[in-house]
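Bench log. Compound arrived from synthesis this morning; before running ITC I wanted a structural hypothesis for how flavin-adenine dinucleotide sits in the protein. Inputs:
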Amino acid sequence: MTRSHRKTVQFVLDGEVIELADFDPTRTVLQYLREDLHRTGTKEGCAEGDCGACTVVVADRGASGRLQSRAINACIQFLPTLDGKELLTVESLKAADGSPHPVQQAMVDCHGSQCGFCTPGFVMSLFALYKNQRRPDRVAIDDTLAGNLCRCTGYRPIVSAARAMFERAPEESESWLLATHDVMTADEKRHLELLQSIAHEDVVALEKNGRRYFAPRDVTELASLLQQFPDATLLAGGTDVGLWVTKQHRELSTVIDTGRVAELQKVSETKDALLIGGCVTFTDLMPKLLEHFPTLEELMLRFASPPIRNAATLGGNVANGSPIGDSMPALLALDSKLRLTSAGGTRELALADFYIDYQKNALRKGEFLEALIIPKLKGREQLFTYKVSKRFDQDISAVCAAYRLTVDAGVIKDARVAYGGLAAIPRRAAGCEAALIGKPFVEETFVAAGSAITNDFEPITDMRASDEYRRRIMMNLLLRAYQEALARSNNKPMSRVYDYGRRSTA
Ligand SMILES: Cc1cc2nc3c(=O)[nH]c(=O)nc-3n(C[C@H](O)[C@H](O)[C@H](O)COP(=O)(O)OP(=O)(O)OC[C@H]3O[C@@H](n4cnc5c(N)ncnc54)[C@H](O)[C@@H]3O)c2cc1C
Ligand code: FES
Ligand code: FES
């Protein structure tokens, strides 16, 4: 089927459908809000997704058919990606009579703001929480705020506001009812109807001053566009690509957005493996991933922040191939494969063969990552993953490690060991694996295997860690995996760093 092309983008803002044409497709949502609409409640701090000053909420129809509201960072989100969605900014929150939203009132009552620069961002992150959870615990509140920085108020009053906002929830008849209500309210229906009025099946195709943007709807269209524009930049969540524009000032002549390609949004499973579409966000992926790999919880929750995870995809993380990307060690330890597709067909490639050198991978011209195939754990296989970074939340790894161990009758039958942050690419530690397989499951084996890792990697010194620190960490994490496997075999689960990092769940 050949779909028609549309030269405009449509989205909802404050109950009205906005239609935009003839604009630079790499213009960010933040630039549009502040410079075009002069809606300056949304602030710019870092322009790289780190501080949360620019947090806005994007709503659309979720998989359940209900209104789904998610916080994102407007500073790195390209404007055309709003097509078919609803945008909510801090200005959208006030009620028809001008009274503040319960989130805003709670921030006032709990003294959650001093200079106020960060406040709209906090309010929008809390607003997303308010919409999505009934009574979040401290862990959920802390996680919600992980992407918002405040330099003056301190977080305690903001956490108090996060609790107090639920006490200020309006009556059922009022606007901004919780989307968590079991019955769909008139307000939610109204939002969904507006979204339905802009739910088109055509391809968005924009061009301005030689810059093109396409949003194809299926893999055939995506493959054919990539054949036509082999040097195009593929866009998933834009949490890497956005920074190429805002920080590196790169000019992207053709952008192909994979965010509308139906096949790339799917998560499915067979008896032996999970199949994750190339454009599934971390937020959407987490429930299924943790169902099969519960030990990934800490790594996933420490991956950036909710606004980043709401946009960022596993496919983008893998395709970007940063040596310090957090998902690759675990995917390597699980022997994951990639399904790569182009107009010429589809092939499967082991992730271990995907990375060639620093920021070089095996993608051919015209090819894209259609899906990741992650084998499920079998029999006695166990997975352990660790992230070491300077900050607990929202930080890039100095070292990230993953171990898959199979221990039977006191012998290590199989081992996969993979690290990020130790070489130009994330990769397995072949020497260490050889030193483990077939050996007794005792501490001495792991100490010896730890020495073998020093032949696998030659860590460097950079701003995140010294070579010496990395060397110690790579060995110590292996010992930690041993301790954890031992504790589990004795039915004594280890305390997770996550528990300490969160300090208090009270
Ligand atoms: C504040 C902040 C915090 C971060 N924290 C972390 C962190 O803790 N851990 C971590 O690992 N990363 C982190 N990142 C990096 C980033 O979020 C991840 O790499 C993310 O997974 C990228 O996914 P994306 O969907 O945003 O990709 P995009 O930015 O859209 O794309 C990334 C790359 O993948 C390519 N690509 C996208 N889709 C496809 C496809 N289907 N086929 C082929 N190529 C494709 C793009 O062309 C580009 O080269 C952080 C980034 C920010 C801004
Ligand atoms: S301006 Fe800092 S996250 Fe967007
Ligand atoms: S109130 Fe000043 S930065 Fe948060």
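What the model suggests: The two ends are 56 Å apart (CA to CA). The longest strand covers residues 399-408.
ITC booked for Thursday regardless.
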